[in-house]
């Protein structure tokens, strides 16, 4: 009887999309098991690749929408519309407009970057398509604005004593009043979130994530103070403490506080839509992975959450990745971890040849 493999990786950031990674792994499996039954199931946890995964799961169509990038430069963006028996749902990915991928290293500046593009997409879906639900994947952000840019695009007005201001973190200290009267009417908003950080403090958005967005040590002091003022001036103390409020530079907070959103695990949302329980149960072996399996992955990101679910159902799980740290290797979450970096090849080669190298690695692994 042919073996059945569920192949469900996340993206290899900078190299392979989750679908490309799944196809590369499948090619390696077929070299050793030509008659294998293969179930391809790319996953995402709310960051980049979320829309691509949701497109297939919800049979959605792509919509084009004018927006702006993190620094306010115009761009043409995309999101999804999915029709269900009960409603019309828009599926957005914050990285599409406000992600790090839009900025060069020298342009990264979380004191100036905002989530305005996210709000523009939300407004477009509401005003042009009358959606009754928005699902938004949050991750991969270039921002640290607490969702204020998004809120401004939805009609919330931030004022100093001198007049309306552009709500980027460098201006937060001058916010004296916040007016909600002109905010557009919002449908149900669900945010798919891959972290559980609060907005403020040593585990908050600024302390944990702003460095990778270009913040210096002095910038971090200003950013934390800016977000604290935003919380205070808007009465958002309760929302700021909710796990996930610090996601995507505090966009989690903005969605909770300004859009009455519900934050859910991106993986849990997809698991339901993709019927992962049944697909894992039908498999003999589960293969997963992502670009980097490390201590951050253990907080519940896609491949780790998948592996824990599979282990609960009694299925072996093998991971393939670009690199893995000691925390991941010693976690016991996976039956085995196989990393491209273990080959000793230069990083440039690993990135440029990730697909063929991943196929070769799978072929060489005892499954």
Report on this model:
There is one protein chain. The chain is built from 15 helices and 14 strands. With 367 residues, it is of the alpha/beta class. Strands 3-4-5-6-10-11 form a six-stranded mixed beta sheet, with helices on both faces. The longest helix has 18 residues, at 217-234. The two termini are 16 Å apart.
Strand order of the largest sheet: 3-4-5-6-10-11
Count of β-strands = 14
- Strand residue percentage: 15-25%
Query: Structural class of the helices, strands and pairings?
Result: alpha/beta
Give the overall pLDDT as a whole number.
Answer: 93
Topology as a string of helices (H) and strands (E): EHEHEEEHHEHEEEEHHHHEHHEHEHEHH
What is the terminal-to-terminal distance?
16 Å
Rounded Rg: 21 Å
Low-confidence stretches: none
Number of distinct helices: 15
